[in-house]
Amino acid sequence: MSYSDFKTIEQAVSALGLTVEDTFHLFSHIAPIEPSQRLKETLEETLDLAASISTEKARSELIITPVLLEVRRIFKNKVGYFSGNTFNIDESKGLTGACDFLLSASSNQSLVTAPVLTLVEAKDNDIRIGLGQCVAQMFAAQIFNLRKGIEDQVVYGAVSTGTNWKFLVLEKQMIKIDLTEYFINQLNQILGILCEPFKIYF
């Protein structure tokens, strides 16, 4: 079993002993961050291209990656960015396999270093399909951080088609799901949420 075997959020919550709380506008208190001209120009070029190719890989490379690299630039490259890296944490719980995207509060790019703060799961069209897998990866990140002596760390997660984003947070044993879905034309709000967990570190 691996992350990709968690097909639904119900399955992940049951298997990992978590509870769920659905919340509207979970991140409404977070200040938006204006995207740089560089990101705006990049997305002007890549959005239509990703839509025309219409594969998960294209959306990951052409939309999600530029957005996550913007987060890294905002924090002066002190945020670790990983794409497709193996993140084997607990085989007995099915917490093995690769994560689409992983961000850590560390500039170390040679290996994943705690604290892991954000995981992003890319999906072609249906965000719901990725929620269970994202929850499993967030739980794995929580275990990883605890093993490194970092306790009570809130882990953020997102499932994205590139143009649509849904965010979650894991606090102890509670998964909070924002019922609000964000769209790429709300880029300043998306960036604000993605940057939020790093603010206490940088």
Descriptive notes:
The chain is an alpha+beta fold and 202 residues long. It has a single domain, classed as Alpha-Beta Complex (tt1808, chain A), CATH 3.90.1570. Helix content is 37%, strand content 20%. The protein has helices at residues 9-16, 37-53, 56-74, 127-147, 187-195, and strands at residues 19-23, 80-83, 101-104, 116-122, 155-160, 164-171, 174-178, 182-183. Strands 1, 2, 3, 4, 5, 6, 7 and 8 form an eight-stranded mixed beta sheet that branches. The longest helix has 21 residues, at 127-147. 40% of the residues are buried. This is Restriction endonuclease, type I, EcoRI, R subunit/Type III.
Secondary structure layout:
Layout: H1 9-16, E1 19-23, H2 37-53, H3 56-74, E2 80-83, E3 101-104, E4 116-122, H4 127-147, E5 155-160, E6 164-171, E7 174-178, E8 182-183, H5 187-195
Parallel strand pairs: 1-7, 4-5
Antiparallel strand pairs: 2-3, 3-4, 5-6, 6-7, 6-8
Can I get a quick summary?
It comes from Crinalium epipsammum PCC 9333. This protein is α+β, with helices and mostly antiparallel strands.
Mean model confidence by pLDDT: 96
Shape verdict = globular
The number of strands is: 8
Unreliable runs? none
Major β-sheet, in short?
Answer: 8 strands, mixed
- CATH class label: Alpha Beta
CATH architecture: Alpha-Beta Complex
Distance between the termini: 36 Å
Strand content: 15-25%
In CATH, the topology is named tt1808, chain A
Give the SSE order as H and E letters: HEHHEEEHEEEEH
What structural class results from the helix and strand content? Answer: alpha+beta
Helix content: 25-40%
Task: Calculate Rg over CA atoms.
Answer: 16 Å
